[in-house]
Design goal:
mainly beta, OB fold (Dihydrolipoamide Acetyltransferase, E2P), 2 domains, 8-stranded mixed β-sheet, about 35% strand, globular, NA-bd_OB-fold, RADX protein, RADX, single-stranded DNA binding
């Protein structure tokens, strides 16, 4: 069928009602958002953002309502989609923006693709990777992996991806989203090492839309976290506190989930795997810890500073 491109869509969308099909690759995926309110009678008030790209650039795509339970888990980072009968809307200005792995990629920020059950009923097809042709010119998924030795030089809020061997997993903790609200964020602290430093990565992992992974992080698993943000204490003793926290687009993978993921081709991931082959499992097992209370960032030594 006749295809269009994201770049062409941005130039012509105001003058059309019907659009030609699109062929795109998913580069980023947000957590699933529930926006239900007691007074609104919506069956499935869900929404999820994806960043999709073709040879012309990258654009946001929004999956709405009952399409979320049907498609969210199948649309992975790296998945190629054929989209038909979609709508184009002006983009929502306050959404979070993931940091693209390819800094040269053009971003179309004025409009977004909207996929709905009706008006119009969107048609989505997943193209298996072995059927994807090079001549389609779809970009590869690129990452920004860092090693632990590089972390200390990175600025606050810098976006990066990490891989490490888990040495500590804290219990799941809750924090209120709003001071007097009923909603909570669920998170846990994790330490992971990669052999490039004596210090581990300290990771604050919020429960994303991957409960099957979040609940099964345990010592000695290979952990990959994408789209993490650097958090550093910007006061005088800044060297003491530096950790990574999840963003809205973070994805988490543990041993058993790595097969076929695009990051397996990344050089730093391959280097990490080489390092793990030089380690004795029994030696690392002795250093692992699970559960317990983990106060972090640590409170000051005395009450006057507190």
């Amino acid at each position: 069928s006749k295809l269009t491109s994201l770049g062409h869509l941005e130039m012509t969308w105001r003058s059309r009602v019907h659009f030609h099909p699109l062929l795109v690759r998913v580069l980023h995926k947000s957590r699933l958002r529930y926006y239900g309110k007691p007074e609104k009678k919506l069956d499935m008030p869900y929404q999820a953002y994806f960043e999709v790209a073709d040879g012309s650039g990258m654009m946001s795509m929004v999956l709405w309502n009952s399409l979320c339970p049907e498609w969210y888990n199948s649309m992975k980072v790296g998945t190629v989609l054929l989209l038909e009968q979609y709508a184009i809307k002006t983009s929502y200005p306050f959404k979070t923006q993931p940091t693209p792995g390819d800094s040269q990629m053009k971003r179309f920020a004025t409009i977004e693709i909207s996929l709905n059950v009706r008006d119009p009923p969107s048609k989505i097809s997943i193209i298996p990777e072995e059927m994807v042709k090079p001549e389609w010119g779809l970009p590869e998924v690129k990452y920004r992996f860092i090693t632990r030795s590089e972390l200390d030089d990175l600025p606050n809020n810098h976006s990066c991806d990490v891989i490490g061997l888990v040495t500590f997993v804290g219990r799941a903790e809750r924090a209120r989203k709003k001071e007097h609200g009923e909603d909570f964020w669920l998170y846990r602290w994790v330490h992971a090492i990669d052999g490039t430093s004596d210090q581990p990565f300290i990771l604050e992992l919020f429960a994303t839309s991957q409960p099957d992974v979040f609940e099964h992080i345990h010592p000695m698993t290979y952990l990959v976290c994408t789209q993490m943000r650097v958090v550093r204490d910007l006061t005088e003793n800044s060297s003491s506190t530096i950790y990574l926290t999840t963003s809205n687009e973070s994805q988490i993978f543990i041993t058993g989930w790595h097969k076929g993921q695009p990051y397996t081709k990344d050089t730093k991931v391959k280097n990490f795997i080489q390092w793990t082959k030089t380690q004795r499992e029994a030696d690392q097992m002795k250093k692992t810890v699970i559960g317990g209370y983990y106060p972090f960032p640590r409170p000051p030594d005395n009450f006057l500073k507190y």
